[in-house]
Specification:
This protein has 155 residues and is of the alpha+beta class. The protein has two domains: 71 residues; 66 residues, Roll (Chitinase A, domain 3). It contains three helices and six strands; from the N terminus they run H-H-E-E-E-E-H-E-E. The chain has a six-stranded mixed β-sheet. Helix 1 runs antiparallel to helix 2. The longest helix is centred in the N-terminal third of the chain and has 31 residues.
Length: 155
């Protein structure tokens, strides 16, 4: 699998999410400042709740924008014979199923379907990422009670 193309697809997915977050923030902000949202009684919190929602969207947007910036600057290393680290595309057998992970410094949880395969982005801080970190092809790993696997390939 072409890792630079995969990274590009992940960035594109995050940019789409940025646009969705921006639209959601604009909608929540408009709801918070709309004249209809003004409190009519001390128990009427519609406008306040909309402002909290807008702030949450703004914080998510900021974190997502930082991830996009970090991934644009990320240089994908080559992993021939090297232990798993950020930038590794790792195929594992996990609970008798083959799974493909792309270990990146951010954007964990992003899932894509590329070249006929499902790919999940994990970070070194995630349970699976921590279990795979510094492993090599053929190594076994476990990351929580009952879940174990084997590294099939690292590229």
């Amino acid at each position: 699998m072409n890792k630079p193309a995969l990274l590009h697809a992940i960035i594109a997915e995050l940019e789409n999410e940025l646009r969705r977050q921006q639209a959601a923030n604009a909608q929540a902000s408009a709801g918070a400042t709309d004249g209809e949202a003004r409190a009519e009684t001390k128990w009427d919190t519609c406008g306040l709740e909309a402002s909290y929602l807008a702030r949450g969207h703004a914080l998510q947007f900021k974190a997502l924008a930082a991830d996009v910036h970090a991934l644009r600057a990320f240089s994908i290393p080559v992993f021939s014979g090297q232990p798993i680290d950020s930038g590794a595309l790792v195929e594992v057998e996990l609970d008798k199923a083959k799974v493909l992970f792309f270990l990146l410094p951010c954007a964990g949880g992003t899932e894509l379907h590329v070249e006929g395969r499902d790919v999940t982005v994990i970070t070194p801080e995630s349970p699976v990422g921590a279990a795979l970190f510094q492993k090599k092809k053929g190594d076994k790993f476990s990351f929580r009670a009952g879940s174990s696997g084997k590294v099939l390939s690292v590229s």
